[in-house]
Amino acid sequence: MDTNEEKHLREEESRQEPEKEALELGSEEVRTETSGPETEEVRTEVSGLGAEEARIETSGPETEEAQKAEPEQNKKGLWKGVVFFFLCFTLSFVLGALLCYFYFFGFPKRQENQAIHNGAASSSTLSDSNLENLESINLPRVTEKLRKIQDLLTDSYLYQENGKDAEEMIYKGFLTSLLQEDPYAAYYTKEEIEETRNRQKGIYKGIGAAVSEKEGGPLVEYVYPGSPAEKAGLLAGDVVLKVDGISVESLSLNYIVENLIQGLPGSSLEMVVNRNGEEVTLRITRGEVVIPGSEVGDVAEMLKLQSGAEKQNETDPQKSEEQQPDVNRDVLAKLKPGDIGYLSLRGFYMEAVDSFISQYESDIDGKKKALIIDLRGNPGGDVEAATKLLDYFLPDHLQKPKRKDSENKTIQTENRGESASSSVLEVTPNPNRQFEKDKTLLLYTEDKWGKGKDWYAKDGHEVGLPIIILMNQNSASASELFAGTMQDYDRAWVFGTLSYGKGIVQTVRSFPDGSAVEFTTHYYFTPAGRNIHKKGITPDLTVEMPEADQFTYLRDRTKDLQLRKAAESLYINFIHDKNSP
What we know:
By secondary structure, this protein is an alpha+beta fold. It has helices at residues 3-33, 39-47, 51-58, 61-117, 128-133, 139-156, 163-176, 190-200, 228-232, 253-261, 299-302, 308-314, 350-364, 383-393, 478-488, 561-579; strands at residues 186-188, 203-206, 209-212, 219-223, 239-243, 246-247, 268-275, 278-285, 287-290, 294-298, 340-345, 370-374, 441-446, 454-456, 467-471, 493-496, 504-510, 516-525, 541-542. Strand 11 (340-345), helix 13 (350-364) and strand 12 (370-374) form a beta-alpha-beta unit. It is flat.
């Protein structure tokens, strides 16, 4: 081969080298852009292309435009990220603010609504100013102020202070601050709590008279037999004007009783009373008074029903209508001793209830055809004592009753009274409260959170006699509970007047030094869900006591119209047919 040919061949090979490089480059670019099942196809197609075609796919105007658009796409992605971050931040801030609001403002309101729903909240809505005034006591602030007062007394007080008395008065003042809403709140020293417990059991140091508040001075409602008051000549119906020369007209009843009338046995007091418009002065020597917890009797003997001859003289047509005070006396013409028993209960404490049950078993059970239970003037007492007596009277397996306050029974008697109505806001129990099935519910309580305790019958005993319960405006608390529960189960009728209306329970908490505090903790409800606070028990038959006999019927039962009406109803409904020949 000559020199020209070799030169030509080398030029030809040099022209082919770039084409090979381009072909290899194009194949590598295609492999980089594809992957997966389509790779083999792409490789096959690329292998049949020339170097120029490969270069067309990997370069040109479109590639340059893509390269220019890439920074703009990066900018758009950056803005989207910023906007997304801002939206997330805003949403988190809003949700956090809402959670804070509900935590600090929403949940307390929900709790208040729940308390109202459960019947445990106040009937009125509290304003913001009231809420501020209802904050708990600031103990550090009080302690600091007491320290400053103590320093002032130590430096400047002329007399010697009594630290123990001062301490007791601080505690009393603390509980006294609750009296506007809770008139039963009190602090007791060791001596006072013992005296209070004795008084609830009917044992106290005084004169032995029951008094009530009245304009012009305390009204003597009852003088206990054998008491210092009876021995001195005090009578029911007297109005107390002065005690030891002090006018009591403008003083509170509690102050008069605790500071002027009660005292050490053997000491005496001078009392001036208004008796039928005349002033009578009495000297009464104090002593320990023991009030009988219960009293048993026979209604026919108590009413002193006359024999047939005496009755014929009484109904002589020559006598005027004014001489016949009870035109229904004929109803009881055939009532005999042994037909209707009578039991009264002075208060609901264990000793009185045990005495009541003992007298029932000895004088009533198996000997009488019906029973009148007298709770007039009964101020209440211990819930446990009330449930014990209810358990004794009721069977153990009764269904929870459903009864409305406005429900009235049909009673065969004359002079039917009207049910009293009340505008007091209804206190409703927790609707989610669960009770045991097939057990006789006696009562239940609920605190401000809707929680409380249930009492059920369990002693296996019941009383099957027809029963009427007598009540008046001074029948309160546990006596209302007893009457209301018997009424709910249709085990007794209630006669008399609207009761006091105390449907709340107080709790006594003692301290190691013997002192104690008492304050209201619960509402109580009868088995049918009735709360009678500030409403009272509406009698099935309203019987008003004549004004002339209001303070004499306890001494002379022939003037006890409420007792007579109860006896008439029991005789008509349950005894008349049994006494017929």
